[in-house]
Design goal:
Distance between the termini: 23 Å
Shape: globular
Bound molecules: adenosine-5'-diphosphate, magnesium ion
CATH topology of the largest domain: Creatine Kinase, Chain A, domain 2
Number of strands: 17
Number of domains: 3
Oligomer: single chain
CATH class of the largest domain: Alpha Beta
CATH architecture of the largest domain: 2-Layer Sandwich
Number of helices: 27
Radius of gyration: 29 Å
CATH superfamily of the largest domain: Glutamine synthetase/guanido kinase, catalytic domain
Length: 729
């Protein structure tokens, strides 16, 4: 009998490799061709309008109505010329995905005629009926309207013949209902105070902004096999599946030759991404079979976040053209590596300095050390919040599973920087300053090599690692909207730098020289932030013990981790920098907790349904065959031979029976637990009940199902197996 699984497998064998036709030999010919970039603006806008957009991008100046109309009309002309028929405000609601509502440019004008219309007001602001977006109680349904407002710092683009205008999304009362708003606010907070610190060293700095280069990991699975796995379809992960005899143990996939089907998908994805101005640069195989990664050249963080959101959407779209499904779930398959999204983060100035790059002169190096040490201190003081920023149900399966950093946040800085910090720490105060007039020669900062070679040897197990000229935050999940870890990182850094400037001022007001003051404070920060520094193996048991001694938090689950998001300390922090108020924080907390509950609930239902409707009937069918067989043996054999020769069958029958009843019992208990959890009204209690009472059944049930997979005749097993899902043919 050919079941769904076999027809799916057959389809995978008939996939043609269709090579991609490039729009041009040179990427530069089409790079950004679908974006309303500054260079396009210069072409389409009047000098006055162009200057205003530039000022708005650089300084956040408001764009007035008249100019907005001009820009709208230019965008319309450009977009229609590129085949766009519709436009939409494109935003990041708190679902974590992106949202769009398309409106046609065409506007009826009577007499059966229409004109293409797009006014400044439609560009700048819209009021989508947003009542079905999660708002965590900010917006009650009777005042359903929120509004979206244009973010000119992220260029408009055309996707699927629709002009997409990146926007923020806020409620009528001004509370943010999205990810972009707090990100932009955090960047502005960081800018203000980081510029002040920069000016200790470089008077000409006027702007500081975070940069982000993300590395997106993902799995590809054949579309037909995907469709034959209801768990993948409904949850993005497999809830069952015995491990394949071979998966990643030979390490033969990592950086290996890219399978032709995957390579063609990647090329197509790159073309689409490049047209939209996403600077994809690298592609390679990852550790697990059918796992891959792509990464762009880094950009200013807001743009990079938009580009990542857009890329995840493109992956979905392009993958279908190649009969693939992209899995962005953090842990689609048990037993092989899950997927993350490393966030490479640094700070840059409008004068072209990377503030995390060791400099050529002692003064540059002091600036470098100043920013570096402030980051250490910020992460040390806010490790729980940073952990909370990456919490999700999917990521819980990854963090601390010996393939990804643990749920404990620590910072790796490498041997050379450690040595430098140790030297600074040991310097007696003022020894750093010699009686010399020039600023540079006064600073006796230990020499730091410009290129930190040993850092590229990198401790791969650290969740937050300094990699030569940037920090790499590795605990972020593959499906996450990276705006969240980014706005947390920006805000804790802004807060730390603010404290730093206050302390510097306090000392200088007492007549202490500023360089003296800076040194004095940095020395103290180095000492105080020491517990967050860890250079060893973060995957080891020893680190768990050591981290506990250092009083670092270790929140293994999302509901526990998220508590840091609504602590008094966090509320004050975000309020101080006007990134979010208490209401906005609570809303996000509620939404995240609810999402956790719903995800576990859905997974539990899928698991129960599959166990009862797919697995058990198959097991019973096979068991009946064994029983038939045993009956037959009894007929043809004498009773002595029967006892001797039927042992295998009889044992299998018993074994299968045991698994069947264990699965049935497990599903019943899990369903009961779910009912109990559903009746709890407090969201924290409910999430904890889902974790402690419902989720705990998943692995037990799975164990029995996976055992059955090994016992039951392969011919009748209904679900594509790991060996089939994981390897491209
Ligand atoms: P890896 O070996 O981890 O892949 P790469 O040097 O290739 O490291 O960089 C990974 C990512 O880090 C890329 O997206 C790259 O653009 C980004 N990156 C490099 N420098 C910076 C920086 N100053 N700020 C932010 N991201 C950066
Ligand atoms: Mg990396």
């Amino acid at each position: 009998m050919a079941n769904f699984r076999f027809s799916a497998l057959k389809q995978t064998l008939n996939r043609p490799i269709r090579e991609i036709e490039y729009p041009s030999n040179k990427v530069s010919d089409y790079f950004g061709s679908m974006t309303f970039s500054l260079s396009v603006m210069r072409e389409y806008l009047t000098e006055e309008a162009f200057k205003m957009v530039q000022r708005s991008i650089q300084k956040g100046d408001r764009i007035d109505r008249k100019i907005a109309d001009q820009i709208a009309s230019a965008i319309k002309a450009w977009a229609i010329g590129k085949g766009a028929t519709h436009y939409t405000h494109w935003f990041h609601p708190l679902t974590g995905a992106t949202a769009e509502k398309h409106d046609a440019f065409a506007q009826p004008i009577g007499n059966g005629k229409a004109i293409e219309e797009f006014q400044g007001s439609s560009l700048v602001q819209q009021e989508p009926d947003a009542s079905s977006f999660p708002s965590g109680g900010i917006r009650s349904t009777f005042e359903a309207r929120g509004y979206t407002a244009w973010d000119p710092t992220s260029p408009a683009f055309i996707l699927n013949n629709t002009l997409c205008i990146p926007t923020i999304f806020v409620s009528y009362t001004g509370e943010s209902l999205d990810y972009k708003t707090p990100l932009l606010r955090s960047m502005s907070a960081l800018d203000t105070v980081a510029v002040e610190v920069c000016r200790y060293f470089n008077r000409d700095v006027n702007k500081v902004f975070p940069t982000l280069g993300w590395e997106q990991e993902y799995f590809l699975v054949d579309l037909a096999l995907f469709a034959a796995r209801p768990d993948l379809v409904l949850t993005g992960k497999t809830v069952f599946g015995h491990s394949s005899a071979k998966d990643q143990q030979l390490s033969d996939h990592y950086f290996g030759t890219i399978h032709d089907r995957a390579r063609v998908f990647m090329q197509d994805l790159e073309i689409e991404a490049h047209k939209l101005g996403i600077p994809l640069k690298t592609r390679h195989n990852e550790v697990a079979p059918s796992q891959f990664e792509c990464a762009p050249v880094y950009e200013e963080a807001n743009l990079a976040v938009d580009h990542n959101q857009l890329l995840m959407h493109l992956m979905e779209k392009v993958s279908r053209r190649h009969d693939f499904k992209v899995l962005l779930h953090e842990k689609p398959y048990a037993g092989v590596n899950g997927s993350g999204k490393h966030n490479n983060w640094s700070l840059a100035t409008d004068t072209g300095i990377n503030l995390l790059s060791p400099g050529k002169t002692p003064k540059d190096n002091l600036r470098f050390i100043t920013f570096l040490v402030n980051i250490l201190k910020a992460v040390h003081d806010n490790e729980e919040l940073l952990r909370a920023s990456v919490a999700s149900e999917g990521n819980d399966l990854r963090l601390g599973a010996n393939e990804a950093p643990p749920a404990i946040i620590s910072v790796f800085i490498g041997e050379q920087i450690t040595k430098t910090l140790n030297e600074i720490e040991k310097m007696p105060l003022k020894q750093a300053l010699k009686n010399n007039n020039s600023f540079d020669s006064k600073i006796n900062i230990p020499k730091i090599p410009e290129i930190l070679l040993d850092n590229t040897d990198r401790n791969r197990t650290s969740p937050f690692a300094f990699t030569g000229n940037k920090f790499e935050f590795r605990a972020v999940g593959s499906s996450a909207n990276t705006a969240k870890p980014m706005f947390v990182l920006n805000t804790i850094m802004a807060d730390q730098l603010l404290n730093f400037t206050i302390e510097v001022k306090k000392l200088t007001s007492k007549g202490i020289k500023r360089e003296d003051a800076i040194f004095d404070i940095l020395k103290r920060y180095i000492k105080e932030s020491k517990p967050i520094r860890f250079e060893g193996n973060s995957y080891s048991e020893k680190w768990l013990e050591e981290a506990a001694k250092r009083k670092l938090s270790n929140h293994r689950s999302t509901p526990e981790a998220l508590q840091a998001f609504i602590s008094d300390k966090t509320i004050q922090l975000f309020k101080r920098h006007k990134v979010m108020n208490e209401k906005e924080l609570n809303a996000r907390y509620e939404i995240k907790m609810e999402k956790y509950v719903k995800k576990v609930q859905i997974e539990s239902r899928v698991l129960g349904d599959l166990a009862l409707n797919h697995i058990l009937p198959t097991a019973v069918q096979y068991q009946n065959r064994l029983i038939e067989n045993a009956r037959g043996l009894k007929e043809v054999l004498d009773s002595k031979s029967f006892v001797k020769l039927s042992r295998g069958q009889l044992n299998s029958i018993k074994e299968i029976s045991n698994h069947i009843s264990a699965i049935k019992e497990g599903v019943e208990q899990m369903t009961e637990a779910r009912k109990k959890a559903n009746s709890i009204s407090d969201i924290y209690e409910q999430a904890m009940a889902y974790k402690d009472l419902v989720l705990v059944h998943f692995n037990t049930i799975r164990k029995h199902v996976d055992k059955l997979e090994m016992l039951v005749d392969d011919e009748i097993w209904p679900l594509p197996k790991y060996r089939e899902l994981l390897f491209l043919k």
